[in-house]
Amino acid sequence: MKVVLLAGGFGSRISEESQFKPKPMIEIGGMPILWHIMKEYAYYGHTEFIICAGYKQEYIKEWFANYFLHNSDITFDYRNGKNEMVVHQTNMEPWKVTVVDTGYNTMTGGRIKRIQKYVGNEPFLMTYGDGVCDVEIDKLIEFHKSHGKLATLTAVKMAQDKGVLDIENGAVRAFREKNMADGAPINAGYMVLEPQVFDLLDGDSCVFEKVALTQLAEQGQLMSYVHTGFWQCMDNIREKNMLEKLLAEDKASWKRWERSIPNLEYRNRMTKGE
Predict the structure, then answer these.
(1) How far apart are CA 159 and CA 157, in angstroms?
(2) Which residue intervals of 123-169 are DSSP H helices?
């Protein structure tokens, strides 16, 4: 299946980094979080990607334009007035990547509608470009096919950090720390969508979550695949640092590939100019 990645937002809550690049291109472990998401899908054999770009979309295009160069052994030969480049070997993944400028201020639904012609009349995978997850994509797709509905989203419960009070007539009868069971499931992305979903989208101002998902739910056409493993978005610097730490300590459950991760202590020293 083709994989649609939403990567056009402003990332205002992590403006320390997003003022220079799109949020999905902010690096964790030395590579953009968008790349981590693509590696997740590729692990399960899904290697054709359609990126819905917007804010600073040229950054994404330039990054992928240079990706082959940066992952190859190359000789540049300028002798005798020549300008030749010889590629000796490359470590490139066998991916097909389409980067689409879906507009600067376009909402999520509008972005998805704009890439309809690249998806065609077939089911597709879709997620947000700022969250990593260790959901088993093959089982997610199997679940989607089993129920025959138009859409499946991955639902997760986030751990809560506030205490829970049992109150009766103003008196606190019990207190305990919150756990994951107290929270309502949230939309984690990692969706499987049928092409009929495009019919619910209209115009750049269309918000996918408020329009398409709401209508699908009302029609009984939206199912949830409950994931009890790891999921984490990167909305702020604290969450970015948390993901960096997991990678540096080799505890990143979404990382199912082999690639050296920069030493976190060394990177921090370099950032401080030591």
Answers:
(1) 7
(2) 137-147
Exposure string (b/e) for 234-260, b if CB count within 10 Å is 16 or more? beeeebbeebbebbbeeebebbeeeee
CATH number for region 2-157+186-271 = 3.90.550.10
Q: What angle do CA 265, 270, 274 make, to 5 degrees?
A: 100
Q: Which long-range contacts (CB under 8 A, 24 or more apart) does 13-17 make?
A: 13/235, 13/236, 14/234, 14/235, 14/236, 14/237, 14/240, 16/237, 17/237, 17/240
Q: Both tokens of residue 170?
A: 């103003």
Distance CA(175)–CA(148), nearest Å, equals: 43
Can you give the pLDDT at residue 120?
97
pLDDT in tens, 127-144: 999 999 999 999 999 999
Rounded distance between C-alpha atoms, residue 118 and residue 243, angstroms = 32
Residues 175-192 have pLDDT tens digits of 555 555 556 788 999 999
Is the pLDDT score of 164 beyond 90? no
Distance CA 31, CA 25 (A): 8
The tokens for 213 are 């998902």
pTM comes to 0.87
| CA angle at 78 for the pair 75 and 79, rounded to the nearest 5° | 110
Residue 265 has pLDDT above 70, yes or no: no
Distance CA 51, CA 58 (A): 12
